[in-house]
Amino acid sequence: MSSTEPRRLILDTDTAGDDTQAILLAALSDRVSLEGVTICTGNVPFEYQVENAKYTLDLAGVADDVSVYEGARSPLLKEYDFAEYVHGEGGLGGELFPETGIESADEHAVDYIVRKARENPGELTLACIAPLTNLALALQREPDLPELLEDIWIMGGAVNTLGNITPAAEYNFWVDPDAARAVMDAFETTLVDWGVTVRDSLFEADVFEAVETMDTELAEFYLTITDAVREFNAQSEDDSLGADVTTQPDSMTLATLLEPDLIEEAATYYVEVDDRDGLTRGYSLVDELGVTDGVPRTRVVESVDGDRFERMMLDMYRHGDPHYSA
Amino acid sequence: MSSTEPRRLILDTDTAGDDTQAILLAALSDRVSLEGVTICTGNVPFEYQVENAKYTLDLAGVADDVSVYEGARSPLLKEYDFAEYVHGEGGLGGELFPETGIESADEHAVDYIVRKARENPGELTLACIAPLTNLALALQREPDLPELLEDIWIMGGAVNTLGNITPAAEYNFWVDPDAARAVMDAFETTLVDWGVTVRDSLFEADVFEAVETMDTELAEFYLTITDAVREFNAQSEDDSLGADVTTQPDSMTLATLLEPDLIEEAATYYVEVDDRDGLTRGYSLVDELGVTDGVPRTRVVESVDGDRFERMMLDMYRHGDPHYSA
Amino acid sequence: MSSTEPRRLILDTDTAGDDTQAILLAALSDRVSLEGVTICTGNVPFEYQVENAKYTLDLAGVADDVSVYEGARSPLLKEYDFAEYVHGEGGLGGELFPETGIESADEHAVDYIVRKARENPGELTLACIAPLTNLALALQREPDLPELLEDIWIMGGAVNTLGNITPAAEYNFWVDPDAARAVMDAFETTLVDWGVTVRDSLFEADVFEAVETMDTELAEFYLTITDAVREFNAQSEDDSLGADVTTQPDSMTLATLLEPDLIEEAATYYVEVDDRDGLTRGYSLVDELGVTDGVPRTRVVESVDGDRFERMMLDMYRHGDPHYSA
Amino acid sequence: MSSTEPRRLILDTDTAGDDTQAILLAALSDRVSLEGVTICTGNVPFEYQVENAKYTLDLAGVADDVSVYEGARSPLLKEYDFAEYVHGEGGLGGELFPETGIESADEHAVDYIVRKARENPGELTLACIAPLTNLALALQREPDLPELLEDIWIMGGAVNTLGNITPAAEYNFWVDPDAARAVMDAFETTLVDWGVTVRDSLFEADVFEAVETMDTELAEFYLTITDAVREFNAQSEDDSLGADVTTQPDSMTLATLLEPDLIEEAATYYVEVDDRDGLTRGYSLVDELGVTDGVPRTRVVESVDGDRFERMMLDMYRHGDPHYSA
Ligand SMILES: [Ca+2]
Ligand SMILES: [Ca+2]
Ligand SMILES: [Ca+2]
Ligand SMILES: [Ca+2]
């Protein structure tokens, strides 16, 4: 258990599938104090995402303390397709469509982020596990945002490896490449990409079996929301998937934020996102070769202790505390 | 030893470094009949490339039988930089600058390729281990070229992995992305990319030591031409290199052409090259996910038996025959 | 004098040079009720623009009734250069740097536009004589904005003619081509471009002489703010300028909004703005040929009664009422 | 009649419609010695173009002296559409499909241009009234071509005005924008664009009536080949056309080459062609503003004496000599 003050966190999410697990980690960990959840355009139709986030906060028992702020309902400029074929209709596996009755906060997510950052300079950590539209709009509104935020963790990009929505691109960056480009240009961030997700976050039969025996609400919820994605992965053409597995991009991002020594390897590179429509929309050039003039500014997580990450998740499902065994 | 008729081969090369080893394989193998060597803009200034090719053919004892045809001295449209920082000045390690006195053929390489293909429909194999300018120009001159050639092997591209000249691109495709795009669009080819080169063709200390003890002309030549590249690799930021190693993209391409069962894995994908200047110039989208509408047409070599490839090369250095142990 | 209800107007401006004349027209005409002035990134540093607008409203005697709302301080995504070489340092000819002491409204310009449009659906006219960043951001916040606004007039683009900041582009569209593209895609607008500005709005010696004899504050102000631009035009390489003339893009836009029968010719075309950086950044394709699939949606003002426009301006300088002779 | 030596001319054409009139001018004028006609991909299917050129040379009585060289059958890289909807099927109005039986030269057009230029350095004028594929390929083959040719006249581009195939582009540049870009970058040329064509080359009813009374083969031929284009223009959305008129881009280019004092205004600008697919494919940035860093190198014909041009054409139709009244 950490003796330090919990970090103050805002979580920006397009809540579907693994976003829920990231919300649970943020809500149930004592390492962070989750102050608000902001919703960004992404995986599934906006209203589903809002309800999914509220439902998950409620499941974690924090719905009264943590408000949901509705943000950008579309990318800055481009059109995109939802990923319901991955996460199931509605984003929670295809069978669960919450109607919580919980009210959203009045304030727009972008205004909320800007206000909180101005009121608490150097205090707030932002975790972005969605397309980066909200953060890009907050930056447009407040150019000093990079100085006002303490820390930014992002799930996005495919670092010199096969993407997931196209061969060139990962979904979050692809949905709003203009926002991704602007954010990667302006902020120093920690990046958890699709590559490390595939290498180090896969859950397989042993996890599924363990979870199936737990008989907790959280275990049950995990099995529900992974129903569609397991089928999707089983049929994937990606050689690294193509089996009954789940990927945990968003929850692994939160896990490394909560317990940074899960990170086995990381290095800081220049990153530039391709904002052009076409072949390479959303491609993230990560200059591992050091051949561009770009200043290295993005800490790329290259290797994560997958066993320990798995333990965190199982601890959470069984004991409601991701740091139970820590 | 193969009982079948040797395949009739034209080799298109920007002769520097490992191109020489590919020429040696083609000249010394009885599996192919090398009919001509065509020179394309690429690694080092054109006149060096021409002399390097002639010198290598002479070393293989075939300079009287195999003519060198000079081709495109620049890409179709774009400018580029030589790679002398990789291969040493002149392209043969930095100390060797041949002046053979051998005459080039009168015919332009592009005209030669077109004429030979028309005269021998369905008979000729083309191996391209250079930027694809000559082949693209031949296609422009003769739109039926895809039907006239029997087989095409290409070294180029970086298949969903880190490139070598930029993070997005491999050198041959980057030098002339317009040509690479046109060629990949029009022809069915076998592609040996930079990724499989790094994974399966690295030579290390054991090879260097073996070669050092051989005391043959070919062994000596290998050590000369790898002098600069070993130093370059030792200082590379690419995690897969960064040691005293050599890479054999061109010779591994020829080796797999000569002994196709070196190929452990291959699959046919849709490939599209990015011809735009900028971030992703020369990037090759290889649709492993099957998400584009493109028709799969390029057989991508995904895994090569590196031990056997090494044995071929050592057999050639020691015995002058790459198939000596075969 | 119009017997109809005055139109309710919000004016979005990057106040420098001719923007002031447009503000005066909007403030002094009884055909519109100017409800707010919003400031957008553009001609000169943002703080100058804000002060220039306040100074002009004060000159028109409406500073107490019409608030200034500060908006986007930078384009959506791209960088740009100020046009102080056209309008003089500070934007009012180079000698005048107002410090009005007037407070800006608390509300951000984008929030103001969105709120007013929601509160008054179908009631408000928006005149945009600046880069379109504020309007694009308002659209991002409120996707129904096209239905909520009654009418939109835009000064921008170069319709199949020479631009002013580059051969391909007019300044407002060039500064924020992403915003211009988004706005032209989403809204039905009336467009006053740089071409009709050059053809029909030039003021020459006779106007200058007339204004010089007037001895009114507004006449004096006009002479002050055109000081720099007259010198700039005299040295222009554009054959249509290259003399001691002024151009009135913004005031002519307002004039046609106030007295629509100034418009001699107009037609509705499909318009698409080039948002790519490079050669054609900010280029506006206006499909006069009807060859694209785009739906015609932009009413392009092709010819304006320049004499009558001149009379409006002279009436305003002399009598404080642009419709004095009408 | 000129007392100077006739200029030695190669004419590169995609023979359809007005190309024939340019061939007639070149063949019948004593100011030039037409040495060869090269055919480039363009207006109509290649075989039609070849036959149209031969037929026209035969009509001019020079088919025995001037050979037709077949060149590029497709652009360097991109696909395009024929313009048979302008010129009629086959390119000669829709009713005339010549079968001359004349043999083409053996040599490829590109090889012919390169060989002639090398053999006659500084002697040859090239007139290009087609997409610029042949010239770009010749440049690729012989980088010194800009020094070897004496003079180059090009019909192409739309100089800061409405194009003809798209709002942004003229047909020749649009068909092969890569070639156009390469040519405009490498060569000093005289450019006759679509704008000056529309402004100064229109033929109307008075010309048609004059030609109808002539009863010569050439007059008859003119009426035949303009049949389709007159109908096309009558229905054009371009305000400058939209009547029973013909445009003479190619013949006006040749006319100004033959009698340079037809040119009333010309200036030298930096020109850059947009080679990207999409909105502005084939757009020619002509830097009349002097705002780019590009070196002015292209002499743009801005105004032509249309009356005198008309007289040349009528002299040719009536007397077989375009300089009859000169
Ligand atoms: Ca997410
Ligand atoms: Ca090579
Ligand atoms: Ca303005
Ligand atoms: Ca033509």
UniProtKB/TrEMBL annotation, chains A, B, C, D:
SUPFAM superfamilies: Nucleoside hydrolase. Pfam families: IU_nuc_hydro. GO terms for molecular function: hydrolase activity, hydrolyzing N-glycosyl compounds. Keywords: Hydrolase. Residues 9-310 form the Inosine/uridine-preferring nucleoside hydrolase domain. Gene3D superfamilies: Ribonucleoside hydrolase-like. InterPro entries: Inosine/uridine_hydrolase_dom (IPR001910), IUN_hydrolase (IPR052775), Ribo_hydro-like (IPR036452). The keyword Zinc does not apply. It comes from the Archaea. This is Nucleoside hydrolase. It comes from Halostagnicola larsenii XH-48. The lineage of its organism: Archaea, Methanobacteriati, Methanobacteriota, Stenosarchaea group, Halobacteria.
